[in-house]
Specification:
The complex is a heterodimer of chains A (about 110) and B (about 110). With about 110 residues, chain A is mainly β. Helix content of chain A is about 0%, strand content about 50%. Chain A contains no helices and eleven strands. Chain B has about 110 residues and is mostly beta strands. Helices cover about 0% and strands about 55% of the residues of chain B. Chain B has no helices and twelve strands. In chain B, strands 2, 5, 6, 10, 11 and 12 form a six-stranded mixed sheet that branches. In chain B, strands 3-9-8-7 form a four-stranded antiparallel sheet, with no helix packed on it. In chain B, strands 1-4 form a two-stranded antiparallel sheet. The chains are: A mainly beta (about 110), B mainly beta (about 110). Chains A and B meet through strand 4, strand 5 and strand 10 of A and strand 5, strand 6 and strand 10 of B.
């Protein structure tokens, strides 16, 4: 049981480049989400999904796209990277949508946009 | 809208002394409350949560937290700090009636000195 797996762990992009951060979970969790972590701001929700085929915007969705074609995978796409997207990105999942279940995090992806 | 405040950027304690990391929250309804810990270059790890029931919640690594509804607080405590407890701690809240958004505080760095 690997939990929540994110790749890559580190990435440097040039402004305007595109890339995809991969996230997979093997716990059959319905809910998956992406957060970005910036100093002093905690974690802010980018996008989330309550099940395959369903996605919605979080607090800071601009500049990011997501899709959820399977229960296991929830990739985050940066279509045209900007320096403001330099951050640490965390994928997270939990079992059910409307409950107090614990949310589990991946190990993080450190992204630098130059 | 829901929010979380962690008023201290850093807390310094001596090993063996009790520690408290403060958290206050604001939600329109009843809250789910969580504490997570983050070690350097790692993802967030779940410590404990309050869903309902006893106001004193016990979690991993000897940590506990007390839910105080009148003061809208959920302070994290440990009777005797260890050097290995040094990390970044995040409080988070989710309104039971507000769907999927989990809101994080800005984080508090705990430094335990020998």
């Amino acid at each position: 049981n690997a939990g929540v797996t994110q790749t890559p762990k580190f990435q440097v992009l040039k402004t305007g480049q595109s890339m995809t951060l991969q996230c997979a979970q093997d716990m059959n969790h319905e809910y998956m989400s992406w957060y970005r972590q910036d100093p002093g701001m905690g974690l802010r929700l980018i996008h989330y999904s309550v099940g395959a085929g369903i996605t919605d915007q979080g607090e800071v969705p601009n500049g990011y796209n997501v899709s959820r074609s399977t229960t296991e995978d929830f990739p985050l796409r940066l279509l045209s990277a900007a320096p403001s997207q330099t951050s640490v990105y965390f994928c997270a999942s939990r079992l059910q949508v409307s409950s107090g279940n614990t949310i589990y995090f991946g190990e993080g992806s450190w992204l630098t946009v130059v | 809208a829901q929010s979380v405040a962690q008023p201290e950027d850093q807390v310094n304690v001596a090993e063996g002394n009790p520690l408290t990391v403060k958290c206050t929250y604001s939600v329109s309804g009843n809250p789910y409350l969580f504490w997570y810990v983050q070690y350097p270059n790692r993802g967030l790890q779940f410590l404990l949560k309050y869903i309902t029931g006893d106001n004193l919640v016990k979690g991993s690594y000897g940590f506990e937290a007390e839910f105080n509804k009148s003061q809208t607080s959920f302070h994290l405590k440990k009777p005797s700090a260890l050097v290995s407890d040094s990390a970044l701690y995040f409080c988070a809240v989710r309104d039971k009636n507000a769907g999927n958004m989990l809101t994080f505080g800005g984080g508090t760095r705990l430094m335990v000195k020998p």
